[in-house]
């Protein structure tokens, strides 16, 4: 009966839903559910149905009740003293027939981050709800402030920290980063710049109100000293642990940002942790390419991707900081701050909407982290290729955290697979480079290029593919965009 009703309503068993009898009028608790669905992943409210553990009782509503409930619902929803924002359209609220009875169906989509928090009453700190498997719950003030912060279109991590000078940054970290940058980008014009100019190009530093240079939030987190970082982010903490089953041994190895004998910034943490994290990824001796042993495979890149994504998507105002735990074959990576897109968009890839995009960009310059939002797909694909246990993401709305659980093991060798995958990757990179070169050459000769001309020059069937390449070239600092709409041009 339950499955038949869900199928009739085109609702999956795992879909978020709330059933209410509503025999005595529009339930007051409907607004908590509206807020929680809007602030989480959306859901459906069904009025006139009672849900049991394994079944439904469809009581139904009269036509008179449906008309009244719709009127009362829209009236309250559009009253800014009662509900902060109406994110619904007419088709989201409609009567439907189940069997021979009518019910009222209310579909609440997940609110865009620009509209969150959606709250009840006039005080967001007392009326903002979210939802997890236990039901609706009142958000903490910290979680509400995080939602307000996420409304901004301008990346928060490029905010200039006026109270600091560049002496707040660790020079050894900058030096190490530049060495890798120069190895990967031989001949790049940034290689000839002084450190302060290089940091400005990365948007790790910018001029303050006095005309001198100060680090940005991204610059301080990426290159700074931990004791300076905690002046801005009191809860900042990076923690890596290797644990075992022996309860008498607390941990086999540990490093964290408060140790004092290293910088404690996120780039040095990444460099320290990535080599230890993938030690247990065993690569068979048979893995060879062109006669040489291959010690590094897609799984290694996916592990780096997972760590970089956690560091770039974290809410550094959140509690408990970044935690990475390795125990035997299991690796757990956890960061404060929930995702800023729906779960469906998250798993589909292509729209990652990172909380700290400039940090992700700085990782990208040293070939770490996917700026196109396909990092999740890379992780899932790498594990599927090895037939390892599927990675599990846990989105804890109550704790405002994202946790990734991975299990690693012996890399499976498939004769020729490494060579084929490598050749395909190199071919794809060569195609991308050649298209970039063609576009740059056209701009040099003509002064600028439009997206339509870029599509023609790059051999794309539509402007969509060309725009993606142009966006990547902007991120790399190769070109810049001027103008808007049809007048948009791209110049070097």
TrEMBL record:
It comes from the Bacteria. It holds the Pfam family HATPase_c_4. Residues 13-132 form the Schlafen AlbA-2 domain. This is DNA binding domain-containing protein. The lineage of its organism: Bacteria, Bacillati, Bacillota, Clostridia, Lachnospirales.
